[in-house]
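Dear support,

Our group has been running a series of protein-ligand predictions, and this particular one with FE2/S2 (inorganic) cluster is the one our PI (initials K.S.) wants archived with full inputs and outputs. We had some confusion internally about which version of the output was final, so please treat the block below as the authoritative record. The input we submitted was:
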Amino acid sequence: MPKITYIDHSGRSYTVEAEIDQTVMETAIKHNIPGIVAECGGACSCATCHVYVDEAWVEVTGEPSEMEEDMLDFAYDVRATSRLSCQLRVKSAYDGLIVRIPERQG
Ligand code: FES
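Confirmed final output from the archive:
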């Protein structure tokens, strides 16, 4: 199973095993990672699952869709590497993925 590391705003890191085809958001919720709210449950309509993909992983995770881009406008402190974690579906290539959680959501 691919391992994903979440690093929160204070620098605390959580490495968990993810299931293929679950999203990075669902994986975080399942493992009680603090800081990912996911109010809409993964429908790409709340922007409270915002994460920053580590620079080294941007190529692997790819570009956000147009719908995700539009929703990201509502996220707090958006950066070039911002993604909505409900739109990142885990695949084996994600093994070792690092995402950072913003100071707050929304
Ligand atoms: Fe709502 Fe990702 S969970 S946009």
